[in-house]
Amino acid sequence: MSAERGPMFLARRTYRLRRLSDAARMLPIAGAVLFSVPLLWETEGVRTTRAMFYIFGLWIVLAVIAGVISARLRPTDTEEDPKGSQER
């Protein structure tokens, strides 16, 4: 073991950005699983219109979640440029 160790905890902003990027990676997988749920429904007990409402409602919810995650992952003007140059 080395004598010098890094910080035990990450900065709050870095931690949250990593968790948001993890959520962005998992969103398509969760969407695929949720889109396959109507395949498990009994065909005689469920009308097609109900399944279509489920699919389009889920599509809208996933799009909104993706938009929120995307907006929060977008860099802001107050963050420092990692290269140290201001290009405008």
Low-confidence sequence ranges: none
Distance between the ends: 46 Å
Task: Summarize the helix and strand pattern as letters.
Answer: HH
The largest sheet is:
none
Radius of gyration: 21 Å
Outline type: elongated
Which structural class should the secondary elements be placed in?
mainly alpha
Helical stretch count?
2
- The percentage of residues in β strands lies in under 5%
> Oligomeric form of this entry?
single chain
Please provide the count of β strands. Answer: 0
Mean of pLDDT: 81
Percentage of residues assigned to helices: 55-70%
What would your notes on this structure say?
Helix content is 57%, strand content 0%. By secondary structure, it is mostly helical. It has a domain at 28-73. The chain crosses the membrane at residues 20-41, 53-73. Keywords: Membrane, Transmembrane, Transmembrane helix.
Name its key features.
elongated; mainly alpha; 0% strand
In a few lines, what is going on in this structure?
The protein is an all-alpha fold and 88 residues long. The protein has helices at residues 12-35, 48-73.
Write the layout of secondary structure elements.
Blueprint: H1 12-35, H2 48-73
Helix pairs in contact: 1-2
